[in-house]
Amino acid sequence: MKDLDDKHKFFLQAFMWKKICGNEEVWNLLRKCHRLVNDESETTNDEDLVQIIKEINNALKPLNMAIKSFRDELSTEMYYILVNENNNNVSRLVPDYKVQELEVLKGIITCIVKSEDGKISSTDALNLDIDSKILKRDVNNMLEMFVEDGWLCEKEGYYFFSTRAIAELQYFFRENYSEYISTCYQCKNIVFQGPVCQNCDLKLHNYCMKRSGIKMCPSCRSDFNAP
């Protein structure tokens, strides 16, 4: 970290505290860092942000950590997340969780990863097939905690991975669920919710499909199922 100046350190410290920042939040953070060190230069283009993140990531390499950008699979909003690039252990990512909480979280993760649509119903979540005998009200409290802590999102009675979870658990997913993981044809990142080819199961992120202008499966020319 000795190669980082005060501006870079302020920027990094914010990520170490928050872990995840939205696009607008990152720009506000960068402007604040400039003011804190009395830097009068303007940060008005993407290259400025890319450069400071690149310099911080170079300093973080020995720690196997990096600030990376990810788009939310549903909202398409851009987020910047501090991730451990060499961590395939959920317990290390959430060291404050108790044994039963980790068991429930891992059970939820397994169900979502193995599902065809990247989500689990609240009913199925409350009736997990796990070793420990946990009351449904306790499981419900844990689900609320996972949402509050930013690991899960809940919408219309279904739970699915947050952008933070996909970013921080990607190595865990690839290490433990490689046969169930889908990779986006366009960007090559993991995709849970997005259009799927009716014929060959090729999958895309919604935003990758829109950005690329793909209308039919590039592999077999079949139609896509809506996510």
From TrEMBL:
Residue ranges of domain Phorbol-ester/DAG-type in the record: 169-217
GO-annotated biological processes: double-strand break repair via homologous recombination
Single GO term (MF): ubiquitin protein ligase activity
Coarse class of the protein's main subcellular location: nucleus
Coiled coil segments of this chain: none
Superkingdom of origin organism: Eukaryota
Keywords annotated in UniProt: Chromosome, DNA damage, DNA recombination, DNA repair, Metal-binding, Nucleus, Telomere, Transferase, Ubl conjugation pathway, Zinc, Zinc-finger
Family: Belongs to the NSE1 family.
Subunit composition and interactions: Component of the Smc5-Smc6 complex.
Official protein name in the record: Non-structural maintenance of chromosomes element 1 homolog
